[in-house]
Amino acid sequence: MGRTFAEKVLARAAGKTEARAGEILFVRPAHLLTHDNTSAIIGKIGQELDRYGLVSKELPVIVLDHVIPANNEKTATGHKKVRDFARKHELPHFFDVGEGICHQVVVERGLARPGTIVVGSDSHTCSYGAVGCFGTGIDRTEAAALYLTGKTWLKVPESIRVDLSGSFTPGVGAKDLILTLIGKISAEGANYQSVEFHGPALASLSIEDRFTIANMGVEMGAKVAVFPVDDVARKYLSSVGLNDGSYEAVWADSDATYARRIEMRLEEVEPVLALPHTVDNVAPVTKHLGMKIDQCLLGTCTNGRLSDLEVAAGVLTGKRVHPRTRLLVLPASRSIYLAASRAGLLDQLVAAGALVLPPGCGPCLGAHQGILAPGEKCLATSNRNFKGRMGCNTAEIILASPATVAAAALAGEIVDPREAMKR
Asked: Which domain holds residue 415?
């Protein structure tokens, strides 16, 4: 009987020849990601670290990204504590403010190798499934223990197979696909399951598309959301310094057993919105045309890559953001920021009236920059729209694709991006 991706990866990490869904295994992750929360995590184990030391300098990946630059003394003190910790232990994978959002940085720096396990004290660690890595979130207490032991336990998840065929129509993209899937199975439809993406349409999905889809796996409850390492992935991995000989990719057997199988045709996907206050409250854009929008957010770890900025610039170049709407642009990393600058995309977006923010997380989680006022509506390419997510309990967050967000910024209201892209 064949095995799924999750069964293979976890068995290998546990030193076993095979494993089946439901088994609990002790594994040694290749890396542990933490961010601004590193200060709180190491605070839990200060005495133990002094007594026993850090299990490995290679294990931690620390990226300061959530509240950057520091917005108050408390945050600045936390950042300093993290910097001191990284310096004391001579950590090779410490990235200070401005390098980018943790998940983008991990992949760009080649730290999410196919066939390995990377855990992180951030739920969107599942993003690394875009490159065939078993990326999953853990809590702070688990992260603290990993600093000391290098080991943790995971239950082997059941798996869902999603078969993709066809191709997108103009104005529709990966964000519409993943929101449609979440709306189809619900925010709990893949709880503690591994979601594998298969099918002939994979060849047409860029690595950036895959990152968007994998990033939102946790929004349907998935432990991991993963793609195979095909030609698209290998080309990207080579660009970040990982050639074929530097990793051992893993993929499911053709006769693997799945808890559920789902088929989706890309040409049937249309522009959609995730309406307040849950990610699975999904509806077609066409049912909410004319909804007034106060703020638009383009970026974050979900849609802050170069192709996302290109889509927005294509809609906005030569035009002007509506006077009643603010457009915030947040590249996912320094390298994307620089690439967008070299390509003239930032000039085009700023000329259209956008405000470009430093690579970080701030407005997405309501911690810094772009906080909403009571009663305001924000259309965002981010991954969550929970009440209070952007700093105000009486504001509303609506999730959408980069094309839909850019089109709304131009009109000051929800419009069909397919129509906007024709103009």
From this structure: 273-420
